[in-house]
Each structure stands twice: as C-alpha cells, then as structure tokens.
Amino acid sequence: MLYPIATPTRALLDLSGLWKFMIDEELTPIDVNKPLPTEDVISVPASFNDQTASQKIRDHSGYVWYETNFEIAKPLRSQRLVLRFGSATHEAWVYLNGQEITHHKGGFTPFEVEINDYLQDSNNRLTVKLSNLLDYSTLPVGHYSESKDENGHIVRKVDENFDFFNYAGLQRPVKIYSTPQAHIDDIVIVPSVDLADHSASVHTTVKSSDDFDEIHVAILDQAGKVVTSGTGEDQTLAIRDVKLWQPLNAYLYTAKVDGIQNGKVVDTYSEPFGVRKIEVKNGQFLINGEPFYFKGFGKHEDTYVHGRGFNEPVNVLDINLMKDMGANSFRTSHYPYSEEMMRLCDREGIVVIDETTAVGLMVTFGFDVNMFADDDYEDTTWKELKTAEAHRQVIRELIDRDKNHASVVMWSIANEAATFSKGAHDYFKPLFDEARELDPQKRPCTYTSIMMATPKTDECIDLVDVIALNRYYGWYIGNGDLKTAETATRDELKEYQKQYPDKPIMYTEYGADTVAGLHSKYGEPFSEEFQEDYYRMSSKVFDEIPNFVGEQLWNFADFQTKFGIQRVQGNKKGIFTRAREPKMVVRYLKNRWTGIPNLGYKTK
Ligand code: GCB
C-alpha cells in the first residue's frame, strides 16, 4: 500500500485537528444520520485517553465516536478520492454522510476507501465508531469480560495481557488523497546487489488500475538525477556504481513511476528506496556483506498527552538521542509503528526489526515467573487462543505496508508467545511460511523469545533465522543478584551457541526498572547504580559469545502501562525517562556503543 503523498497528479488533504468526540455509554443508539450529540472535542491524531480530565473517559473500555466535517474543492471532484487512516485502534466502522463506507479491525495498520460515491457538494460529515476492546481473537490479546451495573447496563472490561497501556483512538494521520481515474495502485521494489561489481539490479513491479498504455519507471539518485529508466509493469533496471544504504549512513534512491496514456503522464508517484543486501550466514547477520551488530532498543510509541499517538517531534528527538549514543537500531515492539517513523528511519539509516501486533499470546502471562517452576503448571495458550486469522491479517498488512523500506531488515512475527507450549509449532509454522512467501525482499524472520522458552523447551527455534531473546536474569529472576545472573546469562547463551552454531543470537530485551533520581551506595534494585551495574554485567557476557550479534535493551524510555503492584505509573525500565531525560546509565552505554563499530564487530 502506497504512503499518501502529493505529486503533480495527486492532491493531499489532511484531516488532522479537532474532531467531535464522545464515549458510547450504550444507553441510546447513536444515529449516524445526524451529527454526534456532543460538543466535546478531541485532537487527532493522538490517543484519546490522556486528553481528558475524566478518569471515566480515560479508562473507558468499549466504543467511542469521532466526527469531523470537511470540504472538497470542486476541481478535485472529478478525481478519484480516497480516504485513508494511518490506523484506527483497534476496530473502526466509518460512515460518510450517514452511510457506512468501510470497516477495519487491527489497530496499527493503515486502511483506505474510495469516497466519491458518498460525497456531497459541501459540508461532508465523517463519523467513526471505534472499539478499543481486545479478547482472545484479537491482536494484541486481552482478557475480555462483561458485567452489568446496578441499572442493568453493560460494563465491558479489558484486562490487557501485555505490559503497556491500552491507548486507543485515531492515533495516526487521517488523510484524503486524490488520484486520476487511471492510477498507480502499488509499487514493489526489490534491489539485488552485486557487491563485487558495485552494481545493483532493481526489480520494480507496478500495480495499476490497468488503463495505462505504458508504465515508465525512472530511478533518481539523491540529487534528483536519473540514473536509469525503463518501460514496463515488471522490469529490472541496472544501477552501476551503486551507492549502498548502510546503517547510519543512508543513501536513498527514488523510483519515479509514471502511468502514461496517449503519450501523456496521467499519474505519477515517487517511492524512495535504499539498496542494501541482508543475509543470515554462519551465525552472523550480514548487511552488505559485513557482519552487523545491533545496538539499540525495544521502544514504544508512548509520550505524554499524545499517548500512543503520532508525535513527530519526539520521533525526531528519539532518533537523535539514539544516534548520539552510537545506537543503530530498534525493534517496533509491540506493534507496527507509524509510516512516518519508518520513512524517518530510512533517511537516517536506522536499522529496524519490524514487529506485528502479536503480543500477549500466552494466556498465563504475568510477572511471577516462579509459577513456571511448579510441577502442575500447564500452559493452555494454543487450546484457548483464536488469534490465527488476526495474525495472518497483520502479517499481510504489515508486509504490504513496509515491504519497500530499506530500514526494515527483519520481521518479528510475535513477542514472547508461548513457544514452549504444546501446539506452538503448529500455530507458528504457517505464519512464518506466509511471511516468507509474502515478503518480496525475503528478509529474515524471528520472534522474540520469553524466558520460559529455553534451548530445551522452545518448540519453534527451527522457524527463526535469528534467535532473539528477551531475558531478565537479575531482575525478574534472582532480583538484585547480578553474580548469579551473570552465570545464568552466560550458561544459556553458550547453550544456544552450541546447539545452533549457524544461527545468530541477539538480545531483544533485557533491563531493570529504575526510578530516575534514586541512588544507592549499595547498588540496590531500582537505583540508577543498579541499572548501570546490570548493563555492565550483561555487556561483559555478550562480548564472550561469538554468535552474539546484537543488544537491544528494554526500554528506550519509561512508558505507561496498566496498573499493577509491579508498576509505579508505568514501566520504569527506560534508560531515558518518559520526558527523554537521560538516566545515569546512558553515559556508560554511550561510551560502550560508540566504541563498537556497526559493521565488523568481533571479526576485525
Ligand atoms: C517483557 C515484555 C515487555 C515488558 C517487559 C517488562 O518481556 O516483552 O512488553 O514491558 O518484559 O518490563 O516486563
């Protein structure tokens, strides 16, 4: 799916701003033929939750309504007009002038619909009903329950089966774009690099409305100069003296696609792309033929007031903070991030592990890891969950959206699923097959593994290209005891290395809750000293393991979660606070990471 942009043949309207907003108390039905019965407003794009003084609204589980009015300039009415949501969390029913025009489930991927047939000459009313409910059939997974209050009204409850606040709303840009009737629908770009020859062949496939006489593709360099061009829906173009997209040293070409009728350009679209080669070989993760070392983070889209809403200044700041520390990568834990963030990473040379919304796929999820030691413990996840269809859908939509991004080097199919439990392999095998089949660039695939999934118990390691571990020795296990943690970390990594000598291993999570400003002469847990000691211990072990190809710590910044006795206004494992102030450990990590090359670490 193409990102919406203005081009010489396309106009773009942004519906950001104040929309009418109300929660649905389910007392009287809402009539979509009338304006919403409220004067309250909310800002779009953003989560609705933190824009209110009302706890009832903030914590509402169920349905909410949004409404805006817009005008379309007359000259545009002859064009094909498409309404596009960057996302709508988690399920949306969309009405234009009282008629339902589309429905979408899945809160972190875009969807769009043609609106010409529903438009009025003026004062178009766009109404959106959203649900923030999650259950055993959705991704993310939530425990859903219903009860009745004293008046017999339904009360819905979602207990998140994951460790982040269930922010919802129109969290990403809502836009209308125009195209001519004959239009380009999608562009697929697959570069193949010949490293020895300093050349690349770029395979482009253009999907269109089928009424062009000819499709012309030109590849422009960063200065806007045409380096090669050709004609055809499906073709391979050669680039000599190719400039590679490298980590933290991005070079972007542009594929300028023209749809031509009677010798005239009718539709045109420009897609930026990078040329780079990704391989997993001999226990290494290679970018452009050289071993890459991941330095960076698991993150969240999470900021004050915006909640999980699009916050571009913070995205820019986060990337700058990463680069300043010598970091080169992050994972979009635990859902696809905004398209704007992916485009920013392409430009900045930030390497991304792109994750689906598959989080919470373990019905016995909790912070008490001791329960797993119990002989009677049995996990019944794969008997209970009905997420396979939602999972297939998000894989399809994520790959469709992000397939051309140079920054995306690997897909994470799930976070901390019960891969140790009976039925896991049968669940995951078709999903991995599908991802591999769908990705035109054939990127490696992984899932991030939960602590209970060990070299002995994990049933799904054969499915992954890279072993990605989320580990909390010294925090959830043996809290405060870094000596034992060091041994456990080392023993486990050595075991993985021994059993899977050809698979690269990395940490995709490790960390310790740390209250900014809390200090301890004794290095007690929660202090800034403990956080630093914890990371020093971990780094020491990482450097001993030959196939260990990266460290992405948990988390870039403190973030909001649901309530719980383990959470004090959220998760405090950030190395930055939620306001992006550095904790003490940032100096240590900056020092370590600026000393580790992006390419060739441990081999030079
Ligand atoms: C995990 C989860 C992440 C949590 C983190 C924690 O394993 O993947 O979502 O926030 O642990 O801090 O407990």
TrEMBL record:
Q: Which residues form the Glycoside hydrolase family 2 immunoglobulin-like beta-sandwich domain?
A: 182-276
Q: Does the keyword Hydrolase apply?
A: yes
What region holds the Glycosyl hydrolases family 2 sugar binding domain?
Answer: 14-180
| Alphabetized Gene3D superfamilies for the sequence | Galactose-binding domain-like, Glycosidases, Immunoglobulins
Q: Which UniProt keywords apply?
A: Glycosidase, Hydrolase
Q: Which PROSITE patterns match?
A: GLYCOSYL_HYDROL_F2_1, GLYCOSYL_HYDROL_F2_2
Looking at the Swiss-Prot or TrEMBL record, what is one Pfam family this protein matches?
Glyco_hydro_2_N
Q: What is its EC number?
A: 3.2.1.31
Q: Which GO terms describe its molecular function?
A: beta-glucuronidase activity; carbohydrate binding
Describe the location of the Glycoside hydrolase family 2 catalytic domain by residue ranges: 278-596
Please give the biological process terms from Gene Ontology that the record holds. carbohydrate metabolic process; glucuronoside catabolic process
Recorded hits in InterPro entries, A to Z, give: Beta-gal/glucu_dom_sf, Galactose-bd-like_sf, GH, Glyco_hydro_2, Glyco_hydro_2_AS, Glyco_hydro_2_cat, Glyco_hydro_2_CS, Glyco_hydro_2_N
- Similarity comment: family membership: Belongs to the glycosyl hydrolase 2 family.
Q: What is this protein called?
A: Beta-glucuronidase
Q: Which organism is it from?
A: Lentilactobacillus kisonensis DSM 19906 = JCM 15041
